């Protein structure tokens, strides 16, 4: 029996395995924590390209994207991730207190954190998609969630759904560890591309 490497079944299996290995590479790249930004930006870059039918090599291209995006993605992660962490801490702090004031403060902190999370995701996606100054990238990242609330909600639903499933079904962690991040990034690519198409001149700084 001869196996045709160009058959849809073999191509599908090859792609699935590539996404599994890409997911594992992403998790390893995130381990130092401070590298989460560049790891995510590189993941966006290769999966966005795959979504645009520019296949390439997912694994080799991911390593190249890590090096290429390192400086700016890390800066974006620090600029938006640190205040995001502070807001999440504030939300937990206020939620532990009683009274109407603490409830209001918790809601404000959660909403602000959600906005910053969206801005962070946009920022890393912009680094993956365009060559721009850090200042312009941060400006665009902070403006896009407010300009496109519905598409932003869809973008936020990807990580929020994963976290919710992990809480509800602890066994879901095995799916997340194998293909969750790589497939989630691929799904997000279509949402980001839809937003970016409407602001082509703005996000490129033109």
Short description:
With 206 residues, the chain is mostly helical. The protein has 8 helices and no strands.
Structure description:
Helix 4 crosses helix 6 and helix 6 packs antiparallel against helix 7. It is globular and about 60 Å long. The chain has one domain. The longest helix has 38 residues. With 206 residues, the chain is an all-alpha fold. The protein starts with 7 loop residues before the first helix and ends with a helix. It has 8 helices and no strands. The mean pLDDT is 89.
User: Roughly how many Å apart are the termini?
Assistant: 56 Å
Compute the number of strand runs.
Answer: 0
Question: What's the shape?
Answer: globular
Structural class: mainly alpha
Largest sheet geometry:
none
What is the ordering of alpha helices and beta strands? HHHHHHHH
Helicity level: over 70%
The portion of residues forming beta strands comes to under 5%
The gyration radius over C-alpha positions equals 18 Å
**Poorly predicted sequence stretches spanning 5 or more consecutive residues:** none
Integer average pLDDT:
89
- Continuous helix count: 8
Count of structural domains: 1
Break the fold down into its secondary structure elements and pairings.
Elements: H1 8-30, H2 36-51, H3 58-95, H4 100-129, H5 134-147, H6 149-168, H7 173-197, H8 200-203
Helix pairs in contact: 1-2, 1-7, 2-3, 2-4, 2-7, 3-4, 4-5, 4-6, 6-7
